[in-house]
Amino acid sequence: MSIEIRNIQKRFGDFVALDNVNLTVQSGELLALLGPSGCGKTTLLRIIAGLETPDSGQVLFGGEDTTHTHVSEREVGFVFQHYALFRHMTVFDNVAFGLTVKPRSIRPSKEEIRDKVLKLLKLVQLDWLADAYPTQLSGGQRQRIALARSLAVEPKVLLLDEPFGALDAKVRKDLRRWLRDLHDEIHVTSVFVTHDQEEALEVSDRVVVMDHGHIEQVGAPDDIYEHPASPFVTQFLGDVNLFHGRIDGSHLTIGDYAHRLTTVPGEGRAVAYVRPHDLIVSRSPEDALASGTVEHIHAVGPVVRLEVATGDGQTLEAVLAKETYRELGIALGEAVHLKPKKVSVFLSEGGD
Ligand code: ATP
């Protein structure tokens, strides 16, 4: 079931929570809504769910206008950050709940419910916990049961609002992979809200980056990461070093450094963004974008993170493989030169 969001506008008093949002979720895809706190992700999800009414605009499910369809008739499943499973019911009964409360005329038989619940519990790999109570489960297990429960009624659309937000980092990481695998198996159209870049990039087919009530960019994770469409997206997706310069013709110049651009965003003052792992650390000043003194060395795991203080008071961050770091024999206080492997360039606000 595809979802189409057309010209959605939503205010809370004078505050514009969503400003003319347009978006299509393809049938069967897993789409992440990513953005900082307050950007409007949850509001958009609630409008898709029918828990919130837009001031103007439309929501279409499979081409049909559902803007004013009641939440109970939209056939959506939810998983929230704190999903309240019924504490007095077993895992089995929690998952079965949506089926047992159906009107008698369309309620499946006891055997059908049993088969379905066991199938779902197998799908979320927790069939061995069928007789347990929610208080006996870990946070991660609870969220998997919550998901099984929301899938029991075969929703056309699955909506997840920070479903792993309350879990610790390790469990979160495991569940991300698990959700990706699960989605590959069931292909229900899903919209997933998160403020965690890594989570959005790892889990989803496409990512929607939002800021201040509007969409900044929509694309496949790789596309968004490699070709961010704006300074906001570039900075939101991860650590980045900033360099101020100019674009003249097809050349970017930053101090003495010149770089030929393959894609030219225009002419005038510009900001170049380079990710720490896209800075090559060298002993030679040739073609250097910046030079400085090594101020900090963090050597944790397979990479080494260097902080390099430049003459003009800037601190740059470079990440290099441990092996390269050893080969270069870099020590604190030494001079190094930095060359970019890849830059994202945008014209400065206000142009010239
Ligand atoms: P978070 O990750 O913090 O939940 P979000 O991107 O999901 O952020 P929303 O919950 O959609 O953001 O909220 C967007 C803005 O709208 C926020 O500034 C919020 O305070 C405001 N807002 C949301 N719901 C209401 C409401 N019912 N009444 C007034 N303001 C609201």
Automatic annotation (TrEMBL):
<keyword id="KW-0813">Transport</keyword>
<dbReference type="InterPro" id="IPR008995">
    <property type="entry name" value="Mo/tungstate-bd_C_term_dom"/>
</dbReference>
<dbReference type="InterPro" id="IPR027417">
    <property type="entry name" value="P-loop_NTPase"/>
</dbReference>
<protein>
    <submittedName>
        <fullName>Sulfate ABC transporter ATP-binding protein</fullName>
    </submittedName>
</protein>
<dbReference type="Pfam" id="PF17850">
    <property type="entry name" value="CysA_C_terminal"/>
</dbReference>
<keyword id="KW-0764">Sulfate transport</keyword>
<dbReference type="InterPro" id="IPR050093">
    <property type="entry name" value="ABC_SmlMolc_Importer"/>
</dbReference>
<dbReference type="InterPro" id="IPR041193">
    <property type="entry name" value="CysA_C"/>
</dbReference>
<feature type="domain" description="ABC transporter">
    <location>
        <begin position="3"/>
        <end position="237"/>
    </location>
</feature>
<dbReference type="GO" id="GO:0005524">
    <property type="term" value="F:ATP binding"/>
</dbReference>
<dbReference type="InterPro" id="IPR017871">
    <property type="entry name" value="ABC_transporter-like_CS"/>
</dbReference>
<keyword id="KW-1278">Translocase</keyword>
<dbReference type="InterPro" id="IPR003593">
    <property type="entry name" value="AAA+_ATPase"/>
</dbReference>
<dbReference type="InterPro" id="IPR003439">
    <property type="entry name" value="ABC_transporter-like_ATP-bd"/>
</dbReference>
<keyword id="KW-1003">Cell membrane</keyword>
<dbReference type="InterPro" id="IPR005666">
    <property type="entry name" value="Sulph_transpt1"/>
</dbReference>
<keyword id="KW-0547">Nucleotide-binding</keyword>
<dbReference type="InterPro" id="IPR024765">
    <property type="entry name" value="TOBE-like"/>
</dbReference>
<keyword id="KW-0067">ATP-binding</keyword>
<dbReference type="Pfam" id="PF00005">
    <property type="entry name" value="ABC_tran"/>
</dbReference>
<dbReference type="Pfam" id="PF12857">
    <property type="entry name" value="TOBE_3"/>
</dbReference>
<keyword id="KW-0472">Membrane</keyword>
